[in-house]
Amino acid sequence: MSLHRLLYALFAIVIGFSPLSAFAHKESDAYLTLRTDTANDHVMHGQWDIALRDLDYAIGLDSRHDGTITWGEVKAQRKVIEEYALSRLEVKGDGLTCAMQPTGQKIDEHTDGAYAVILFDAVCDKNIPSKLTVVYRLMYDLDPYHRGIVTIHAGDKIAGAVLAPSDPVASLNLREPDRWGEFKSFVTDGIWHIWTGIDHILFLLSLLLPAVLIRRRLQPRGDGWRASTALAETSGAFMVLTTQPPQYRWEASPRFWPACLDVIKVVTAFSLSHSVTLSLAVLGIVHLPDRLVESGIALSVMVAALNNIYPVVHKRVWLIAFAFGFIHGLGFASALAGLQLPAGAMAASLGGFSVGVEIGQEAIVLAFLPLAYALRKTWFYQVVLLRWGSLLIIALATGWLVQRAFNILIPGFSTIIPS
After folding, report:
1. Contact, 339 vs 282, CB < 8 A?
2. CA of 62: how far to CAs of 67, 125, 143, 410, in Å?
3. Which of 33, 73, 218, 283 has the most CB atoms at less than 10 Å from its CB?
4. Contact in structure between 148 and 30 (CB atoms under 8 Å)
5. Which H or E run includes 269?
6. How far is CA 236 from CA 226, 231, 233, 241, in A?
7. Residues 301 and 393: beta-carbon distance below 8 Å
8. What is the pLDDT of residues 295-315, one digit of tens each?
């Protein structure tokens, strides 16, 4: 295999691998909260918020097959929902498993849709110990990217963790919460959030694709004027002089470090702006409707890719990253929307998640840049990836924008990323 073919294959893997993780089923989150009972040392009261779309995917709630789930359909499946969920949760203390007893069920609206709220008691035959082990297996056999955000309240102490099919067990200390452990779990959560967010990835790639190229203006032919003859039926022939529009073309960047500097500017600008709105949204200072946020993210992807075809901004692309980073930060914040934590725990969670997003983002950049620079002179890069790839991204982003803005379902798009 030639070097160029090997590079083509590697680049296709880098470009194509991450988005594949978002196909087939929407990224899902669930929120599990446990509270000790001050009057009974043997009992913890639980609340588990699980998205109806996830329950429908797992056990089938939409009995009418009309794309909507009603309260009547949820009530009809109440026992099935409770058995499915509670059989996939274990709370252990001193090696003993606490029995799960359902106590109620309702529906609540989150920013990303309706959730079933399962109320239950975890009843242990001994006093609740200071250290608890939570084993979380919801969706573990259906969605490898599902996340369970677990929070335990013991008086004024709060401990938490993010659990997933790949890491389903957490040991939590109720007396001295492990803030470092919480930080690390949210770092992992942030990494996976960026890697499974195809719209965030495509926005970033759209901005990075021209980073290894230069938009060069071509010299006009002749004296810059062209003459054209127009015939008029009534007045005969006359001469119309028009200026020749400027012509441009993409050329390979002659040096690596200027290209690398452009990438650093784009990534830094994006990081700064999305960090601001992520923090403001999680702290409850800024709130926008989820439909508006998701539509704005789709629009940002479309604009970034369109700029590769008809460059309006080609010298300061970081401005696009900075401007749209604010709306992407609100999108990132949806992953932490269910958290209600005191200052210390919130700082650990928000800080860890932000670091994880940056790590995930930098990993994409580090894989992309060397391969892009190596292929920048080729027809494959300048035509297939930059031009055709940008057109494909525009088509996808346009579909997402229509779905999200007008709340309609476009066939084929329901299997690609949240709508």
Report:
1. yes
2. 7, 38, 19, 19
3. 33
4. yes
5. helix 256-282
6. 20, 6, 6, 17
7. yes
8. 899 899 999 999 888 877 767
pLDDT number for residue 340: 62
Going from N- to C-terminal start, the domains of the chain cover 3-22+197-214+248-415, 29-178
Show the DSSP H helices in 316-342 as ranges: 318-333
Furthest-apart CA pair in the chain: how many Å?
Answer: 104
Give me the pLDDT at residue 79, please: 93
Burial of 187 (0-12, 13-18, 19+ CB in 10 A): buried
Taking the C-alpha atoms of residue 376 and residue 12, their distance in angstroms, rounded to an integer, is 14
The one-letter amino acid at 339: L
CA separation for the pair 181, 187 (Å, rounded): 10
- pTM value is 0.68
Distance CA 293, CA 210 (A): 26
Residue 208 to residue 304: CA distance in whole angstroms: 10
- Kindly give the pairing relationship between strand 29-37 and strand 147-154: parallel
- DSSP-derived letter for residue 407 is T
**Which tokens go with 70?**
């009603």
Give me the mean pLDDT over the 169-173 stretch: 84
Instruction: Return the number of other C-beta atoms located less than 10 Å from residue 68's C-beta.
Output: 10
Q: What would the two tokens of residue 382 be?
A: 């300048």
Task: Determine the pLDDT at residue 125.
Answer: 77
Condensed to tens digits (0 to 9), the pLDDT of residues 347-357 reads 777 888 888 88
How far apart (Å, rounded) are the C-alpha atoms in residues 399 and 302?
A: 10
Structure tokens at 293: 């946020």
Rounded Cα gap, residues 89 and 304, in angstroms? 43
pLDDT reported for residue 63: 78
Q: How many residues does the chain have?
A: 419
Contact 63, 76 (CB under 8 A): yes
CA–CA dist 37, 170 (Å, integer): 21
